[in-house]
Automatic annotation (TrEMBL):
Catalyzes the phosphorylation of the hydroxyl group of 4-methyl-5-beta-hydroxyethylthiazole (THZ). It catalyses: 5-(2-hydroxyethyl)-4-methylthiazole + ATP = 4-methyl-5-(2-phosphooxyethyl)-thiazole + ADP + H(+). Substrate binds at M46, G202. Keywords: ATP-binding, Kinase, Magnesium, Metal-binding, Nucleotide-binding, Thiamine biosynthesis, Transferase. It comes from the Bacteria. This is Hydroxyethylthiazole kinase. The keyword Metal-binding applies. The keyword ATP-binding applies. GO terms for biological process: thiamine biosynthetic process; thiamine diphosphate biosynthetic process. ATP binds at K122, T175.
C-alpha cells in the first residue's frame, strides 16, 4: 500500500481507538511527552514504580522507555516492563537519551537490547552511532556537529542504521537537522523541521512519544508474528507468518516516520506564530494537535536513501 495512505490510516486508527501508552521516562520532558500523546488521540500513562509497572504495561498498547536522567528505580522498572511487554507482544520503543554521556547508560542500553525485543530504537545521530559501537562525538544529551547527517555521509549513515536495524530486528530512528528512519533493507531521510526545535528541551523525547503513540496502529496479527525477529530477517519466522512479519517490520518504521514528520511539520508551522521558545512550545503542541490529513500529505518531506 502507498506509504502516505497507510500513514493516514494509522493516524485515524489512533484517534478512533485511543490506545493506552505506558511511558517510563525522564522528569524533564515527561509533561510534554504526555501532552503530545494526547494530541495524537492516544492516552498516556507515566508510571515507574517497580511494583506496578508490569501490571500497567500488561494493559497498555505500547511501551516507551526513555533513558534520560536515568535512576536506579527507573532502570529496575524498565527491565520489568520490557519483559512484560515482550511476553505479551506489546511493541516497545527505546529512546537512547544520553547513551553518549556515560558508560553506565551505554552498558544499560546494551543490556536492554540484548535481553529484550524492540519495535523501534531511537536516538539523535550520535546516540545511534554509540549503540552501533562506532565513533561518536555527542556530549551530554546533544549530538555532536561532526556526526550530523550531511550530503557526503548520508549513504554511510543509512548503511549503519540498516545494519543496526537488521541486527536488532527493529526499526531505527536517528534524529537531527535531517532525520533518518531505517529497517534492514530500506532507509528514508526526512527533511522537515526547524532550528527552533532544538531551542526547547525535550523535542527528541516528544518524537519518541509520538512514535510510541502510533505503534498500536501496526495491525495486531502482523505485530504478534513480527516481534522476536532479531538476527536475520527470517531467522525466527516460519511459514505464512513470514510475509505478515516482514510487513509489520516495515510498519514499525512507519510509526517512526509518522512521529518525526509530525514533529517536523508542527515545528515549521509553530515558528511562524511565535516570538521565542516560550510561545514556540505552546504553538508546537497546538500544531501537532491541529495537523490535518491534507497538510500532513502536502508538507511531508520523505526521501528514500
Ligand atoms: N536544526 C534543525 N532543523 C530542523 N529540524 C530540527 C533541527 N534540530 C532538531 N530538529 C528536529 O527536532 C526533533 C528532535 O531532534 P533532536 O535531534 O534535536 O533530538 P534530541 O537531541 O534527542 O532532543 P532532546 O534531547 O532535547 O529531547 C527532530 O524531529 C528533528 O528533526
Ligand atoms: C535536559 C535533559 N537532561 C536529561 S533528559 C533531558 C531532556 C531532553 O532529552
Amino acid at each position: 500500500m502507498q506509504l502516505m495512505k497507510r500513514m493516514q490510516e494509522m493516524r485515524n486508527y489512533i484517534r478512533e481507538t485511543q490506545p493506552l501508552i505506558h511511558c517510563i521516562t525522564n522528569p524533564i520532558s515527561i509533561h510534554d511527552c504526555a501532552n503530545v500523546i494526547l494530541a495524537t488521540g492516544a492516552r498516556p500513562i507515566m508510571a515507574e514504580h517497580p511494583k506496578e509497572v508490569e501490571e500497567i504495561t500488561a494493559v497498555s498498547s505500547a511501551l516507551m522507555l526513555n533513558l534520560g536522567n536515568i535512576t536506579d528505580v527507573r532502570m529496575e522498572s524498565m527491565r520489568l516492563a520490557l519483559a512484560q511487554a515482550n511476553r505479551d507482544k506489546i511493541p516497545v520503543i527505546l529512546d537512547l537519551v544520553g547513551v553518549t554521556c556515560s558508560h553506565l547508560r551505554r552498558r544499560f542500553a546494551e543490556s536492554l537490547l540484548e535481553e529484550g525485543q524492540f519495535a523501534v530504537i531511537k536516538g539523535n545521530i550520535s546516540e545511534i552511532l554509540a549503540v552501533a559501537s562506532l565513533p561518536f562525538h555527542g556530549t551530554g544529551i546533544d549530538a555532536g556537529a561532526e556526526d550530523a547527517i550531511s550530503g557526503e555521509n548520508q549513504s554511510q549513515r543509512g548503511e549503519v542504521a540498516k545494519s543496526l536495524a537488521k541486527t536488532l530486528g527493529c526499526a531505527v530512528l536517528a534524529t537531527g537537522k535531517k532525520d533518518l528512519v531505517a529497517v534492514s533493507d530500506q532507509a528514508f531521510l526526512v527533511s522537515n523541521g526547524d532550528p527552533a526545535l532544538s531551542g526547547i528541551t525535550g523535542t527528541g523525547c516528544m518524537v519518541g512519544a509520538l512514535t510510541a503513540s502510533y505503534l498500536p496502529a501496526v495491525s495486531t496479527q502482523s505485530l504478534r508474528s513480527s516481534i522476536g525477529t532479531k538476527g536475520t530477517d527470517s531467522e525466527y519466522l516460519v511459514g505464512d507468518s513470514c510475509a505478515e512479519a516482514e510487513s509489520a517490520f516495515s510498519e514499525w518504521a512507519l510509526s517512526a516516520l509518522l512521529g518525526v514528520v509530525t514533529m517536523g511539520i508542527a515545528g515549521e508551522k509553530a515558528t511562524k506564530d511565535s516570538r521565542g521558545p516560550g510561545s514556540f512550545q505552546t504553538a508546537l503542541l497546538d500544531e501537532i494537535f491541529c495537523l490535518s490529513e491534507e497538510e500532513f500529505a502536502r508538507k511531508a518531506r520523505i526521501y528514500p536513501l
